Amino acid sequence: MAQMISTVRNGVDTQQLFGTLDAIRENPALGAFTFRATNRWINGAHNRSRMQNFYGAGREDDSRREAFVIDAGEPTVLLGTDSGPTAAEYLLHALAACLTTTIVYSAAARKIRLTEIESTVEADMDVRGCFGLDRRFRNGFEAIRVTFRIAGDASDERLRKLVEHAQARSVIYDMLSHGVNISVDAVTG
Amino acid sequence: MAQMISTVRNGVDTQQLFGTLDAIRENPALGAFTFRATNRWINGAHNRSRMQNFYGAGREDDSRREAFVIDAGEPTVLLGTDSGPTAAEYLLHALAACLTTTIVYSAAARKIRLTEIESTVEADMDVRGCFGLDRRFRNGFEAIRVTFRIAGDASDERLRKLVEHAQARSVIYDMLSHGVNISVDAVTG
Question: Which among B36, B99, B168, B175 has a CA at the least distance from the CA of A37?
Fold first, then answer.
């Protein structure tokens, strides 16, 4: 009967999760990942990225049959044609998505069944910074505020601890909080 | 005949661009923007964000008739079902999109006609960090590498300067390089 017992919790196969952690412990090289995106300018504020292959778990991953294709843009008031969300909004999405998945995975590992996670993310900026009009303002957001609503089969305290743990382990939260080294090269012509 | 002369360069209406800058100089409050996203967990690594209204240019902007809806996910090897790009890939997209738009807008202001911009962005991480397996690794990327290919009606030097200027003015590059304050609240039940 053992095989009848589902190991899936919150949509995460916990047997696969713990197996993955064990595999990386045994062979640390499996932990190295390289993610990629290619972007092409279309017109004005409209540009488009494609993401498909990446390196991870010891090999070049080709499991995605097609590339994900996503468009960026700016609203009219920022001189675009609304061809897609702004880069700033994509950043907020990346943060919300990463924190949410971190919550879901760690809840699965801790045997907590979640029923709902919603978040709102908002951030202020003064475009006098990025437009070069006033040096007192930075280019980016002054601050980002995230509010989670989370429900599940655990005490309020354990649910809140999941959100705290996500801040301690989230890939995107780490980079946005502490910064990351970026190198930019240009090939002309 | 003056009205026959197009003020559009690289898909950017430069008359509108300079008009916007003038308007903000005259009334600095127009520079304040607040961007937002709401995210909802669906199952496992699958979650979905919506972005529609934002505050900017002195008012709540409701020019978007519909929300942008984007899905995040993880590939199989990271315990997902490939329901969308990973948060890490969305971050790379946000960086490429923001640098590209900054290049396009500043080229328009400098009277440079661009014919092509492509970029590849890649970044390494060791998931032993975010999986909590080894404290020597951070949760996020170790580094991000961006390579631009840019062509247009200007010298190689001026084209390279556009890419340098984008690093000095990009909203996303600033935040990823220097970090930003993030507050996270949780409401349970």
Answer: B99
